[in-house]
Amino acid sequence: MAHDDNSGKEVAAPVSSAADKYEGPSTGTAVIASDAFTDPGFPPHRERMTDLDPKADKRAERQVFTLFYLSIAGSIFAIASYIGFPIESGATGDLRLSTLTLGVGIALALLGLGLGAVHWSKALMMNEEGIDERHPIRGTEATRDRAVEIFKQANEESGIGRRTVIRNTLIGALVAFPLPAVVLFRGLGPMNVNPVESLSSTMWKKGMRLTLDPSGLPVKAADVTLGSAFHIIPEGINDFHDKLERKAKAAVLLMRLDPKDLNPSPGREGWAYDGIVAYSKICTHVGCPVALYEQQTHHLLCPCHQSTFDVENECKVVFGPAARALPQLPITVDSDGYLVAQSDFNEPVGPSFWERS
Ligand code: FES
């Protein structure tokens, strides 16, 4: 407490005087950062070789345009290889050659462009350090008013607000403009094939044998032991030139469980054979191969985004982003004991598509 000379009463001393003098950490609850440091500023400027030596400058310039030439050559090579190594034959060797040469061309084009740009900026572009102070993102009132004024003036001069038919048809034209590109995407699909039909069915049909992937050897029910899993393709698929496209839809996983563990819904009791079940290997999320079988839990796992399917319960989704169960291939055995399909899958395989019913 301090003494007031005029009134003779004691009054509280001004707190600020003590606090102002105190320079150490706060004794109250405030936390004061003790590791503050002063802005060290820029390190000393270092000249580059290209700043000091005109020959080095010329050399760097040559290197940069050589890299850009390399990029141009890569692009031309990619186009030439696309034309020169067509993949229409469907032969794996042609496909490999085309992919390899295309990849080399595009890689050279990108690499030349990237390295050239980096080298240019590091060796030849202006080499000065500068500071750009942060400023508020919102413009000043004057700038904002001016922007509104410009919009109003543009509206006035173009007449877009007044001439509504022109405005609306312009919007229509802009909306319609990208549509041809969307329609042209159709050209990426297979020729002379109805894509909806093609996506809705696979090559499996009644009586077709289940064969091992990739050998194509038929599988006997007796060979599928309890707990085992096989990768399966349809009989004869290796004879087709488009076997990869066919396999992308028709691939199957075959597993044998104790029949007591299976819980088929009404109407599906006869789709398995003595505990052997066959499900599409194509994930219903975005179509990766569901390749991991967890023998203890009877779960199938898709390695792409971890969708998990329960084999005991018709491969319903128990985890992950997939929205639908894996389609089941109804199977039985033929007179020789080989596993055969009863029909195609019970529904389209793989991810959803627009017209999927
Ligand atoms: S593709 Fe299988 S989880 Fe995404």
Layout of strands and helices, then pairs:
Blueprint: E1 2-3, E2 10-11, H1 15-21, H2 49-52, H3 54-84, H4 92-124, H5 141-158, H6 164-176, H7 179-184, H8 195-200, E3 210-212, E4 229-234, H9 243-250, E5 252-256, E6 276-280, E7 292-294, E8 299-301, E9 308-310, E10 316-319, E11 331-333, E12 339-341
Antiparallel strand pairs: 1-2, 3-4, 4-5, 5-6, 7-8, 8-9, 9-10, 11-12
Helix pairs in contact: 3-4
Bound molecules: FE2/S2 (inorganic) cluster.
FE2/S2 (inorganic) cluster binds next to loops.
Q: What are its keywords?
A:
357 residues, alpha+beta, Rieske Iron-sulfur Protein, 4-stranded antiparallel sheet, 9 helices, 12 strands, disordered N terminus, binds FE2/S2 (inorganic) cluster
Describe, in plain words, how this protein is organized in 3D.
The protein contains nine helices and twelve strands. It is an alpha+beta fold and 357 residues long. The protein folds into three domains: 76 residues, no CATH class; 43 residues, no CATH class; 142 residues, 3-layer Sandwich (Rieske Iron-sulfur Protein). The strands form four sheets. A four-stranded antiparallel β-sheet has the order 3-4-5-6. A hairpin with a 5-residue loop joins strand 11 and strand 12. Helix 3 runs antiparallel to helix 4. 17% of the residues are buried. The N terminus is likely disordered. Bound molecules: FE2/S2 (inorganic) cluster (FES). FE2/S2 (inorganic) cluster binds next to loops.
